[in-house]
Amino acid sequence: MATTNYYEEKKFCPSCSTYVRFLQSPAASYCAECGSRVLLFNRRDRANFQAALQAQKSGPRKDLKNKKVS
Predict the structure, then answer these.
(1) Residue 59 in domain
(2) How many structural domains are present in the chain?
(3) Is position 60 within any domain?
(4) I need a labelling partner for 15 at 20 to 30 A (CA). Which of 36, 41, 53, 68 fits?
(5) Phi-psi region of 50 (alpha: psi -120 to 50; beta: other; left: phi over 0)
(6) Domain-located, residue 57
(7) How far, in Å, CA of 38 to CA of 59, rounded?
(8) What is the pTM of this model?
């Protein structure tokens, strides 16, 4: 869910069961429709995101720490 515009940004509202526009406070974000606290992702999207991160972590890496400089 990549957004490039603040006015298009949405978060998941568990009460509305959909992605909604939200109001941001320093402590949390709240649904602009019903006032409930919103989450960044729904469960399925969170699982997909975490799986993608794990796949990136377990992929090939360059170990620059032990590389000798000539």
Answers:
(1) no
(2) 1
(3) no
(4) 53
(5) alpha
(6) no
(7) 32
(8) 0.68
